[in-house]
Amino acid sequence: MHHRRRNHLADATNCDVQAAIELQRREFLTTTASGLGGLALGSLLSGDSALAAGPGSNPLAPRSSHFPARAKNCIFCFQAGAPSHIDLFDPKPKLNELHGQPLPKSMTENVRFAFIKKETALLMGSNRKFTRHGECGMELSDLLPHLGSVADDLLLVRSMHTDQFNHHPGQLLMQCGRADFGLPSMGSWLTYGLGTESNNLPAYVVLTSGRGSSGGATLWSSGFLPSTYEGVLLRETGEPVLNLQNPPGLPPELQRAGLDTLRQLNQNRYQRIGDPEIASRITSYELAYRMQRAAPDLIDLSQESQQTLDAYGLDRPEPKVVEGIRGKLGDTHKSFARNCLLARRMVERGVRFVNIVYASWDHHSSLDKELPYNAGVVDQPIAALIRDLKERGMLDDTLVVSAGEFGRTPLGENRNEAKYNTGRDHHPFAFSLLMAGGGIRGGQVYGATDDIGWGIVENPVHINDFHATILHLFGMDHLQLTHRFQGRDFRLTDVAGEVVSDWIS
Q1: Which long-range contacts (CB under 8 A, 24 or more apart) does 303-307 make?
Q2: 274: Cα within 13 Å, side-chain hemisphere
Q3: Considering only Cβ atoms within 10 Å of each terminal Cβ, which end of the chain, N or C, has fewer?
Q4: How far apart are CA 367 and CA 205, in angstroms?
Q5: Using one digit for the tens of pLDDT, what is the confidence trace for 315-368?
Q6: In this structure, are residues 483 and 224 in contact, taking their beta carbons and an 8 Å threshold?
Q7: Contact yes or no for 425/416 (Cβ under 8 A)
Q8: Cα torsion angle, 37, 39, 42, 44, sign
């Protein structure tokens, strides 16, 4: 009995000793080691006091990919509100033949719609004309002549599908991999995995045009990742970022002294509790300081030739349209064109991910009046962006994407007892998207839908497959790019996702 008790006491003593050693080790790692790492980083930053105050490393420093990458940067033109694939990308002459007829009940009885009254819903053909473009013969709507001019650089995917049929959940799934709040967006995952090559601009930038998306800032959140990886929204007018410029009368040397003091206080706090958000705060303050010099140069488009400005359409007159069109807010044509040009200037400066959000394409009514407006906003600037990147030798490693969150129904919308159907409801079962550059094999149409654009009959692609393929282009294995949170390893593709190798050149 006494022998056993002595063993227990010895075990307890050993545990206390081990705990003390572990405590000392932790204290060393969070104080001395952090300071040495900070000093090393400070020297790497060529005298900038920037991130030396952080946890000992720059969280946005460039990192190696899992395998050789095809893409370095991404410009994602997010067409929030869901463009009609039937009227823009996926011609359906059979649908026109069946215009005004009902679908068999077997096709709709277990289907949820946002607004359609399925008992009286009728098929609605398209008034758009489709033309073949390029050597590849890609068929695109008459509303997209400029994109048609770069068809041989485009991958047109006609077989996308999603799990969500309402906007905010659908937008979260497209941007974050799941239709849940609090998850990192695609841009956050990429910057978390790869860092950035820009010291003076954010790794992940968001630009907006039009009326704003349903998802708002949840679409560029860093979720459970440190806020360092969150998208930074650049404003269209005034200061690119609020409070970026110094108030009148604050000399630079006084600002620098204040930041140095604040950095030291934050570093002391970080060394005591190790909260990564404190390191993110230090990073943000110092990045903002460097952005004060970089941002004015970035947005100064006087450096661009008139030929370039004309190509993007910055001086296009705003069409005279009836107010209330879903995609219009101010000079939307100029705003979207400017954002596309800014996106090119950003990736030139090393920005990893640029998300251009344009809303809204939610055409429940007045489709024939409003769709030409929206298409007119994006057609010329996106085509110019692709051509500009190609001429500068940047398209090979810059991935350009244009996509919404789902498609639109072949059925006309009939809510409110409308006498005539003039719009389309939400449609998750099939939609289209465009990609170019960054290792994508252009001049091809991938996948197919049925005769009315309802379902997929060839090569279905889920959004998680799309994400897995994008990460693959950046040299990242979507199964390995993970972050442990609340006891499990999360990833952008959740528990699904297959790389679509046919897309890759």
Answers
A1: 304/341
A2: 8
A3: N
A4: 31
A5: 999 998 867 899 999 999 999 999 999 999 999 999 999 999 999 999 999 999
A6: yes
A7: no
A8: negative
Spell out the long-range contacts of 230-235 with Cβ–Cβ below 8 A and sequence spacing 24 or more: 230/188, 230/204, 231/185, 231/187, 231/188, 231/202, 231/204, 231/205, 231/206, 231/353, 231/355, 232/202, 232/204, 232/205, 232/206, 233/206, 233/207, 233/208, 234/205, 234/206, 234/207, 234/342
Task: Give, in order, the Cα–Cα distances in Å from 323 to each of 116, 326, 333, 412, 421.
Answer: 25, 9, 15, 23, 21
Q: Tokens standing for 329?
A: 């807010």
Name, in order, each residue with C-beta under 8 angstroms of 399's C-beta and a sequence gap of 6 or more.
71, 73, 74, 75, 435, 436, 437, 438, 439, 440, 470, 473, 474
pLDDT average, residue stretch 29-58? 37
At residue 303, φ and ψ (nearest 5 deg) are: -75, -15
Quote the CA–CA distance of 119 and 103 in Å, as a whole number. 10
DSSP 152: G
Domain boundaries in the chain?
Answer: 73-240+311-503
Contact status, residue 161 vs residue 431, Cβ threshold 8 Å: yes
Please give the Cα distance from 366 to 325 (Å, whole number): 9
Tell me which residue has tokens 């100064």: 300
Question: Per the structure block, which two tokens stand in for 27?
Answer: 């204290």
What's the one-letter identity of residue 414? N
* Single pTM value for the model: 0.84
73-240+311-503: CATH topology is Alkaline Phosphatase, subunit A (3.40.720)
Residues in the chain: 505
Q: CA 416 to CA 419: how far, in whole Å?
A: 9
Token digits for 66?
């899992």
